[in-house]
Amino acid sequence: MKKSLILILAAVFLFITACSNGPEDAGTHDENHQGGDAGKDEDSVDELGYTYPLSGLAVDKKSSERAIAVMVNNHPKARPQTGLADADIVYEALAEGEVTRFLAIFQSKVPKMIGPVRSSRDYYIELAKGYNSLYLAHGYSPEAKKLLTEGYIDNLNGMQYDGTLFQRSSERQAPHNSYISYSNILKGAEQNNFQMDEPPNSLIFLNDNEAQQIQGEEANKISIYYGSNPQYNSLFFYDKDTEKYSRYSNGEKTVDYESGMPVAVSNVFVIEAAHHTVDSKGRRDIDLQSGGIGYLLQKGKVRKVEWKNIDGRILPVEGDRQIGFIPGKTWINIIPSDPGLNAAVSLETQ
Q1: What are the phi and psi torsion angles at 11 (to 5°)?
Q2: Out of 20, 120, 223, 228, which could bridge 144 as a Cys pair, Cβ 3.0 to 4.6 Å?
Q3: 89-114: per-residue pLDDT in tens?
Q4: In angstroms, rounded to a whole number, what is the distance separating the alpha carbons of residues 232 and 336?
Q5: For all residues of the chain together, what is the average pLDDT?
Q6: How far apart are CA 50 and CA 52, in angstroms?
Q7: Is the pLDDT of residue 39 over 80?
Q8: CATH ID of 46-350, from 3.40.1160.10, 3.40.50.300, 3.40.50.1820, 3.50.90.10
Q9: Position 21 confidence tier, pLDDT thresholds 50, 70, 90
């Protein structure tokens, strides 16, 4: 009798379990899930995990780190740079004359050392603010100095912290030798009561199915010309095996000075914007508000799109629809609308 009762209870348990695992419960997880499911603690991690807000790559817990935006020198005497390969997003734009400079934004990973650090411009500050970044530079233009001293954005500048938070390398000459460590960034943030646990809002990223359906013409190489000085022209080559674009300056691969790791990105976005020279040193004013046209390269394909400034971020759009990025790193080149994309960009299929 007791054995029969046990068998009956076991059968009932198996029946209930089978019902709870029926078709209605199968496959309910969203592949791009970034938060908790309904009824689940907001900070818990589901089976597929979370993603970093600026790279879209998987992480095992909700990311809470603030973005850090650093002005990185691109003078030939500053190459190869340190830490650049770890940036989630890099903006490249003219700083003066035909000299470009990088705004490197770190969030998913911050290297131990970053540099050489160079001076700020007002439009770089605006871009950094779009990601709620702690902004780092060494020096400033008059327009940038006004924004920084008025507290427009949380910032640490080498003009105030040269020799303390910012250190000079003996291997290079000024102004191409200013570096800052991640530990000193955190130290400076603490000294100034800057909050470092406020992550930026997430970008839009494509899932695997959407990424495989990307439309466009085949383009495995893009050349970008900033002027007559070849030192600042850049190339991106697409590697079909890694599905990433490797960057070159003046024909030389862009790599990390410390590790030798190359810069490899999933998205290359090239836009044109109106530039105006504002002083005798060739400093620029760049219109990053009006929108315009651009080329978006993903998965070895290129398409002509529009760009808009959405909450301080330069993003690709088609009509009223924002285009998602491929998860990974993103490089955004801003070129003058005169001569514009047709003259300053060359696309090739290898």
Answers
A1: -65, -40
A2: 120
A3: 999 999 999 999 999 999 999 999 99
A4: 14
A5: 88
A6: 7
A7: no
A8: 3.50.90.10
A9: very low
Alpha-carbon gap, residue 280 to 268, rounded angstroms: 32
Say if strands 134-137 and 155-157 run parallel, antiparallel, or are unpaired: parallel
Side-chain-side CA neighbours of residue 323 (13 Å): 26
The answer to whether 292 touches 306, Cβ cutoff 8 Å, is yes
233, 326, 123, 222 alpha-carbon torsion, rounded to 10°: 20
Angle at 286 (CA atoms; ends 281, 288), nearest 5 degrees:
160
In the chain, the amino acid numbered 122 is D
Instruction: Report the residue count for the chain.
Output: 350
d(CA 268, CA 331): 5
Q: What is the pLDDT of residues 68-95, one digit of tens each?
A: 999 999 999 999 999 999 999 999 999 9
Summarize the confidence of residues 268-280 as an average pLDDT: 95
What secondary structure does DSSP assign to 148-182, as a single string?
HHTTSS-EEEHHHHBTTTEEE-TTS-TTS-EEEEH
